[in-house]
Amino acid sequence: MSSTTSPTELDVLVIGAGFAGLYETYRLKRAGFSFLTVEAGDDVGGTWYWNRYPGARCDVVSVEYSFSFDEALQQEWEWSERYASQPEILRYAQHVADRFGLREHIRFNTRITSVEWDEDRARWVTTAEDGTVFDSQFVVTAVGCLSAPKPPEIDGLDDFAGDVYFTSMWPHEGVDFTGKRVAVIGTGSSGVQSIPVIAKQADSLTVFQRTAAYSLPALNRPTDPEEMARIKAEYQELRARAKAARTGLLVPRGTKTALEATPEERQAAWDQCWDAVGIFACMAASFTDIHTDEEANALVAEYIHEKIRETVKDPQVAEDLIPRGFPFAAKRVCLDSGYYETFNRENVRLVNLRRDPIERITASGIQTKGELHEFDIIVFATGFDAVTGPLVRLGIKGRGGRTLAEAWREEPQTYLGLQVAGFPNLFTLTGPGSPSVLSNVMVSIEQHVEWVSDTLEDLRARGIRTIEADPEAQAEWFAENNRLAEGTLYVKANSWFMGANVPGKPRFFLPYMGGVPTYREICEDVRARDYAGFALAS
Ligand code: NAP
Q1: Which residues line ligand 1 (CB under 6 A)?
Q2: Does residue 55 contact residue 194 with C-beta atoms inside 8 Å?
Q3: What is the spatial distance between Cα 190 and Cα 212, in angstroms, rounded to a whole number?
Q4: Hey, where are the domains in the chain?
Q5: Which residue's alpha carbon is at the smallest distance from atom 33 of ligand 1?
Q6: pLDDT tens digits, 30-51
Q7: Can you tell me the mean pLDDT for 222-232?
Q8: Domain 9-44+102-147+386-537 listed as CATH 3.40.50.720
Q9: In the beta sheet, which residues pair with residue 534?
Q10: Could you tell me the distance, in angstroms and rounded to a whole number, from the CA of residue 323 to the centre of ligand 1?
């Protein structure tokens, strides 16, 4: 563990040392603030620290899923694969921490349990699980969007006599599945990545699927040195193009609608995505109407359904694996290495929970309506209370003692995803209402950290004590994002984007829908108009 004796009085407290927290740490250090970054884990890396399940790897190509803020860093780092695995991404985060001397500013093993606004002193009082108290003018949360695991919501878990693991809290020493009867519950990205790897090791694997996900082949491969040299030669230009792209991703984008294209053009575009491009956003970007027109969407969905039928030998299993009931790409598309092929293995079985739902977990396994399935190990890949969950669980109390949970009970309103009215001097990196998970999150992290850090430096120079989102500006921003989302097919799926995977959570589209470049322009314009929509006080 690396830690420092924390000053009790700080200008800024940063919560989280994943990629957002690391870059924020770098910027605050450079600007000479009195600050500290606190981290619940015993190392940096955030998502890549916790999610160590077998098969975990990035599903944005690594040359894009990496920092661009330092030219020497991007020139010197070598990615060994097109989509780096979790251990390699974690090594990259550790390298960034060491290279820029960030560890001395990070207090590890520090889980925050309350963050309270002291109205009289206009300062935040933040308390950690171990009782340590931090007193700061500003708090910047860098807690990620997918870091609050969702409870399993299945009765009887405590009765199970075998071992239980969550993909989102994987043991550091790993899990040996050799000779074991294993269950995986959940078929989102975490399930889709781990299932092929677990299947190869386990004696038997049973996959419990409630909703089939769309998954595309990752086409992962070792890095080609010549390609890498070309990328590095033009890295700055590639980064500029990514920042100007709607999703922050360098994905080929079609210019016409799927409905005006001929069947041959559609087939060629989708074959290209499936066989050559291997980027999860490729199909959705192939024509301009995939996210907005149900008929166009159904065409690409049918293309993928056919691919599943071609790959999976048992026709009933293939039908069960075909996603139905929501538009293609309205839920986050997965990227896999041999997912559908895994269901052709002798030792793998699929249980369709729509036909045979889970009743409870018992001492020996999982009791569905029709059968008792016996296991040695159950793996939960059941997802997260996304985007708002990681913030709410910090125990934040703003003006008048109002909690963030109360503020968001009906509607998860923010201004620009950066602040919440009633919570002055609290900045939420990749917060709800910003592009975050709807973009290459590294691009969005850099934009947010730069905006917040520039703002903190500016406020310091001007002697401004507080900055707070205006409730009206916030309500307008929220309404605008809802308006944008309503024009798309995203709102037609029970996705975590919509908060629909968590019982009782209000249903609103959580990330900002207007795209990375538009969002950046809006943020810059807000600052140019002296923080329009924020109230400043000296
Ligand atoms: P997820 O996409 O929310 O998937 C959770 C799965 O668990 C779904 O199939 C869900 O079914 C199922 N489930 C949840 N509760 C259940 C219950 N009580 N009984 C049975 N099934 C249940 O979660 P995730 O796979 O962890 O992925 C979340 C996000 O993290 C991804 O969309 C992606 O953005 C990110 N991620 C990225 C990577 C990467 O970059 N490589 C890897 C993993 C995750 P329903 O759909 O029916 O609710």
Answers
A1: 57-59, 146, 152-154, 185-191, 193, 210-211, 332, 353, 381-384, 437, 496, 501
A2: yes
A3: 13
A4: 9-44+102-147+386-537
A5: 189
A6: 999 999 999 999 999 999 999 9
A7: 95
A8: no
A9: 469
A10: 14
